[in-house]
Design a protein that fits this description.
Blueprint (H helix, E strand, L loop, with lengths): L27 H8 L4 H8 L3 H6 L3 H5 L6 H9 L8 H9 L4 E2 L4 E5 L6 E6 L4 E2 L8 E5 L7 E5 L5 E9 L4 E11 L1 E4 L5 E4 L11 E7 L4 E6 L7 E11 L6 E9 L9 E10 L4 H8 L2
Antiparallel strand pairs: 1-2, 2-3, 3-15, 4-7, 5-6, 6-15, 7-14, 8-13, 8-15, 9-10, 11-12, 11-14
Length: about 290
């Protein structure tokens, strides 16, 4: 290192431009320490400056603080690989890549590139829906309005019950669970434009739907409201929970019911369930990952 900096100018001494020290003259370990203080996008920009920065940006400890604390679990369960066989930089890149789906493509992990927070989205394909196997009541409809390309569509029924469960190693923090629903059947207009047929929408403004969640460590939360805004996707707040230890898997059960049999209900699209950090809007999560 002393030889690399022997060209430092002393008072009154002329140093040719080519002999002046540059960042590339720093040892890789020093460059890596500098890069470790930067955010991931900044590290990637610095890696394009020179080969020395590119090599330093690949060192594992640069990415240690950028990875979520449960990254080994994510690599095994979501990426389906051994975390010991992948460098930290590649793990970060692959976790932030879209989409990261698992369980046969029915669940998706959304990792924030900056804050290392994460969200979990669950397709309607794995939800337990009363009457889903009877085409008089429910159908699975393909649509590009869903991240999973399919929604469950209710034509008409007396008793509505949609339930599901998930077990996951969440990061410590507070979370909110939403049902992503829409009143109206997805369709196409004469010129291919997206429209929603509202002809079968009825019964949702008479009595509220009830949402509930419970966790394996004894937490419970609930809410209720009448479904609204036909033709628009709405994230209905089901409840909140918190996680203290990311090393322990947490099992969550959730449901939406409208079991008042005095009237029928119809025209409902069930897309997915979204679990995201409390205080972060579902729209923000979706905008950050696109479709």
């Amino acid at each position: 290192m002393g030889a690399a900096f022997s060209g430092f100018k002393r008072e009154g001494e002329y140093v040719p431009p080519g002999a002046r020290p540059r960042f590339d003259d720093l040892p890789e370990s020093c460059l890596s320490v500098i890069l470790g203080y930067l955010d991931p996008p900044e590290i990637c920009r610095m890696a394009r400056v020179s080969r020395a920065f590119r090599d330093a940006s690949s060192v594992d400890f640069v990415w240690d603080s950028k990875l979520p604390s449960n990254y080994k679990y994510l690599v095994r369960e979501v990426l389906g690989e051994d975390p010991e066989n992948i460098c930290n930089k590649e793990i970060y890149e692959r976790l932030c890549r879209r989409p990261n789906r698992f369980d046969g493509g029915t669940k998706e992990v959304l990792v924030d590139k900056i804050g290392r927070s994460m969200s979990l989205q669950i397709s309607s394909k794995v939800l337990k829906i009363a009457g889903i196997n009877d085409r008089r009541y429910w159908n699975h409809i393909k649509t590009d309005e869903s991240r999973f390309d399919t929604v469950a569509y209710l034509q008409q029924i007396w008793w509505v019950e949609v339930a599901g469960e998930a077990e996951f190693h969440f990061l410590p923090g507070h979370y909110t669970l939403f049902f992503r629903l829409r009143l109206g059947k997805p369709s196409r207009g004469l010129f291919g434009q997206k429209i929603f047929d509202l002809g079968q929408v009825h019964g949702w403004d008479i009595k509220p739907a009830q949402f509930q969640i419970s966790t394996s460590d004894g937490q419970r939360s609930s809410s209720e409201c009448c479904l609204y805004d036909p033709g628009y996707w709405v994230h209905y707040h089901a409840g909140d929970f918190h996680v203290d230890n990311s090393g322990t898997p947490l099992k969550i059960n959730f449901s939406m019911v409208q079991i008042d049999c005095t009237h029928t209900k119809g025209g409902l699209c069930v897309d997915s369930v979204l679990i995201c950090p409390r205080g972060v809007s579902p729209e923000t999560v979706e905008a950050s990952v696109g479709r």
